[in-house]
């Protein structure tokens, strides 16, 4: 019997490949034993046929397009985590993986993007760029208080369970390492702080999930240059109009939750002095960056100071995020680093970036995830679609 070319050899455990092929096929399609024997005519083969028929009758719900992985006794759900500094391309990579290779759903782990509102200021991925990939905890939280890591752990775990029940791969994506740590560790203490600057608590290496950590990294000078450019693009896209509505809302802006997003405290002095609301300044100015600056030198100076602070604080945030990732790696977390610097340098120079991104980020990521899915998990029997392992596109 000739097996399909894409039948993964990782399925071979205690039996030849033909055993698994017929096992899947007849447990899914037929109610009776195979019309001919896939095994040699021996006493051992006869015993196998008997066992094969009984197993097929009791497992008719198993589908032929799933590859069986034998695991150990305690289950661990497989989860892919894409981490990195703000602006490093995490969202792009997650959408590329989800739409081109793997059936996934994405769980956001950015502590500002979990809140509803300020989509431009928090740089949420637009709906058109999500390309139909389901996202969880992206703009879902509406209460004004700060979402604690323990609360995120509970909400994200629920989302992951739902994704797994639909036989899809959970993909956790975001730059908030305190959220990623709270979600991933087996025993999380809400009172602990492993990222504290002075005398931090020990980092746990016992994880509740079987995790594949992909770290998208960009050289800091290049990333800083890109982040400043991105702030200018956000301003041109209506960020100040959005903040004007936020500060002009009734009741006033919260100092917790979304009120901590970069852009809100920086522009607070501007809107306190010149007003805001309904995308218009207190003196009727509104509708664009030039209009928000105005002709008044004082107004322009306050505006430019706010923009300068946003750029500085964004670059400082990226540096802190990389420091936290390095701490996790030094503690023993297996983080697989991908260097996207060349793609960002090409983007800043106005050159073609697609080929560089494909070669240096996309292709290595696909190999990492395929190898991760092909590994035996630490749990019960688990099923993964064969095309994920064989490299077939959707």
Report on the structure:
By secondary structure, this protein is α/β, with parallel strands linked by helices. It has 14 helices and eight strands. The strands form two sheets. The protein has a six-stranded parallel beta sheet, sandwiched between helices. Strands 1-8 form a two-stranded antiparallel sheet. It is globular, with a radius of gyration of 26 Å.
Present the secondary structure layout.
Blueprint: H1 17-29, H2 43-58, E1 66-69, E2 78-84, H3 90-100, E3 104-108, H4 127-130, E4 135-136, H5 149-165, E5 169-173, H6 177-184, E6 210-217, H7 220-236, H8 239-247, H9 264-274, H10 289-293, H11 297-330, E7 335-339, H12 341-348, H13 354-374, E8 382-385, H14 386-390
Parallel strand pairs: 2-5, 2-6, 3-4, 3-5, 6-7
Antiparallel strand pairs: 1-8
Helix pairs in contact: 1-2, 5-6, 7-11, 7-12, 8-9, 9-11
Number of strands: 8
Total of DSSP H or I helical runs spanning 4+ residues: 14
* Biggest sheet record: 6 strands, parallel
**Average pLDDT:** 80
Strand composition percent: 5-15%
Envelope shape: globular
Uncertain parts: 1-15, 17-40, 56-73, 278-286, 377-383, 389-394
Q: For the record, what CATH class of the largest domain applies?
A: Alpha Beta
Please give the domain count.
3
Helix-strand sequence: HHEEHEHEHEHEHHHHHEHHEH
Spatial strand sequence of the major β-sheet:
4-3-5-2-6-7
Structural class: alpha/beta
What is the rounded Rg? 26 Å
Judging by the overall fold, what is the CATH architecture of the largest domain? 3-Layer(aba) Sandwich
DSSP helix fraction: 40-55%
- How is the CATH topology of the largest domain named? Rossmann fold
Output the CATH homologous superfamily of the largest domain: P-loop containing nucleotide triphosphate hydrolases
Distance between the termini: 27 Å
